[in-house]
Amino acid sequence: MTGLTDEQAAAVRAGVGPNAVRSHRARPVPVLVRQLRSPLLMLLLVAATVSFFVGERTDAVVIGVIVALSVGLGFANEYRAERAVEALHEHLRSRARVLRGGTLVERDVTELVPGDVVELRLGAVVPADVELAEARDLECDESVLTGESLPVRRKAGDTALMGTVVTAGTGTGTVSGTGVRTAFGAIAAGLGERHAETAFQIGLRRFSGLLVWVAAALTAGVFATNLVMGRPLLDAMLFSLAIAVGVTPQLLPAVVTTGLATGSRRLTRRKVLVKRLVAIEDLADVEVLFTDKTGTLTQAGIALRQAVRPDGTLDPGDPHGPFRLGVLCADPPGSGPLDDALHDALHDALNAGPRGAGTLMREWTPEGWRRLDAKPFDHERRMASVLVEGPEGEPLTIVKGAPEAVLARCRAVPQESRALAERLFAEGARLVAVAMRPGVRELVESGLDLAGFLVFSDPPKPGVGEALRRLAALGITVKILTGDHPAVATGLCGKIGMPVAGVLTGEEVEWLDDAALTEALPATTVFARVSPEQKARIVSVQRSGGLDVAYLGDGVNDALALHRADVGISVDTGADVARDAADVVLLEKDLGVLADGIVEGRRIFANTVKYLLMGTASNVGNMFSAAAASAVLPFLPMLPSQVLLNNLLYDAGQLAIPADAVDAEQIARPARFDLGLIRRFMLVFGPLSSMFDLAMFTLLLRVFHTAPPLFRASWFVESLATQTLVIFIVRTRRTPFWRSRPATALVIAVGAVVAAGVALPYAPFASELGLAPVPPAILAAIAVVLVGYLVLVEVAKRRFRTAPSPRLRRRPPHRRVHRRATPFSRGLPPRPAGVRSVRRRAPAGRGRAG
What we know:
Layout: H1 6-16, H2 28-35, H3 39-53, H4 57-91, E1 95-100, E2 103-108, E3 117-120, E4 129-141, H5 143-146, E5 152-154, E6 159-160, E7 165-177, H6 183-189, H7 199-228, H8 233-247, H9 252-269, E8 272-274, H10 279-285, E9 288-291, E10 303-308, H11 322-329, H12 341-352, E11 370-378, E12 383-389, E13 395-401, H13 403-407, H14 415-426, E14 430-438, E15 449-457, H15 464-473, E16 477-481, H16 486-496, E17 503-505, H17 506-511, H18 514-520, E18 526-528, H19 532-544, E19 549-552, H20 559-564, E20 567-571, H21 576-581, E21 584-586, H22 591-632, H23 640-653, H24 675-703, H25 708-725, H26 727-730, H27 744-759, H28 776-802
Parallel strand pairs: 9-16, 9-19, 16-18, 17-18, 19-20, 20-21
Antiparallel strand pairs: 1-2, 1-3, 3-7, 4-5, 4-6, 4-7, 8-21, 10-15, 11-12, 12-13, 13-14, 14-15
Helix pairs in contact: 2-4, 3-4, 3-8, 4-9, 4-23, 7-8, 7-22, 8-22, 8-23, 9-22, 10-22, 22-24, 22-25, 23-25, 23-27, 24-25, 24-28, 25-27, 25-28
Subcellular location: Cell inner membrane
Family: Belongs to the cation transport ATPase (P-type) (TC 3.A.3) family. Type IIIB subfamily.
Membrane topology: Multi-pass membrane protein
């Protein structure tokens, strides 16, 4: 098979379209529709239309303009966030190995067309429906389509279905269907883009629900009161709706998306890509980080250090020595499962000679040897094997893999060989055992003779110790999950200065039930020789204890654990299935880069909470004041259009909050959304704001004897100034400006809003807005009230922060639905419900390992 040429593929693609269910393109119309979904905005538009036709045309135009500006601000920010997501997905393209013109190349999965010949390897996500021409021990996980937990064996003539994952073996076949013309595409097209809510999204929804109840109560009360007082029905309705809009944080989605989009751009510059913007907030919650070892704590520059025979002597290059046998068993460069680094190290040594070997291996080449059969590496057997035929026609089975697995299949292993393996492990070396069985013309992985060991080195990554200390300072506990020997992992920990509280092996984990494993987790730092299922189980049990868990991994064996973690983290060079399962993708596999991402998530979280606290501190209080004043004053304290304009100016000034600086203590520990804190803040600072509003009302009526237009203009200025300037108090636990300086952008934005509010009563169109120029004496009184309010808020803030609060409850176990992998980073939605969720259970009667 030679496959199609690029030109032929392009011609077919022009007719059938790209191999994608949907694209992640930012489209303005859906974003605009989402902005118009607010029932309050729709009611205001209806009310403005009625006002226009009954003669109140000025109010109608003013309300219409204000609503349009509010929608425009929200649209601009959400569309900008959509563009940021589109840019991120451009970075996250999955690749497939395809024959083009007889040459095996890598192409973006969206470029595949029917007729392409593709190669399937361990860990690959099947990129389209593929009719298999060849299949060697090929097994596919089809749970994405069927929900069945066990892999399905596929043979030549079968069809490997798009979206399934190769869990064993290899295969080659022809693409028979792409995009929506596949079984996966048909399911995915009907799923939409629904994702399980994160804890932060749940918190925002509950907060919005709280304010909706407050707004509903105020609206109903104000409307009934105004009707009782004999005010016109239209005026009463407009004022009630304006109060509801004033209480509701209309630009909360815009502030959140602006913060997330800004954060995503910063993270991209720091080599962190976030597949969903809300995952940035999840990073802020992380308390425990499970990570693999190779490439994260080590350089991943694996090199063959030496090849030794079973008695410990160096391999001089014997025909049946471990080095030559290891090369014969290795896949060709770049073609092994996930381009196996150990295989590449063997081929590098073949060209340069392994250090410490008795002879240079470059004098020998594997030419003349023919591969008859092969069984690729998998994570259950932990070994790979080949059946080869030598130059003289003699058959030879070669097996290489984890020493424990290989030695168990050997006929006789000298005790000195076992001692040698333990000694090399204790030195921190990565060890591969090599065994053989000559004379049998079929691949048999038993009755083997030990040929020796291949000793690889993978030194610690520079700066990893500092990165671990930085994570510890952020309140994050780091634990290692590895398939390596425990001595290798603990030896590495000693080199990088990582304290080891305890070690559990996969065999010991298997004997522990969930309760015993939960008890063992706090005292365990290293989990060694663990299988993919055990990794996933450890992550699940850790989460069930109420902690937020991140998992960092890039291999096929990490996919299950990535699914189970609160935040799945992979790298752009990782296996397709790992990148698809992850929420966050690192462009550089470095714990320091991950720490940057966590800090950025906490910064965004802190700035979002600032907006919420400010809204509850003064905005809610001002609306309570307006509602109370409307019940006792002979006129409305503000006209509906003035309430809406006040709210629009206030919200516009807060769009700079995402760029604000954050105090060090606000990012020192994992962040959690605490609705109870916000509710208490509202109950304390809302009445405090209303108290100063009532004082202002008294001054305006009893001292200055203001008429309605001047009363409204004066309170408009005072209300806008108090609820806007209070951000400088609530944004920090420290002394404002002195020990915590806000961002310049925030100072400018807030200053501009206050200046606009003061200037509006003097504008030529002020009378159209129902405002009158404010005399200097009243401005001075407003300044005094404002200073008194800010000082009292600062005093109350200090008492509020130091007062004991109810203990923060941990989130319930498994707070959100397990995520499922998106088979391709571009164009495909999450896996359907019902896919497997493996939970390993200890066999009956087993308890804590003895």
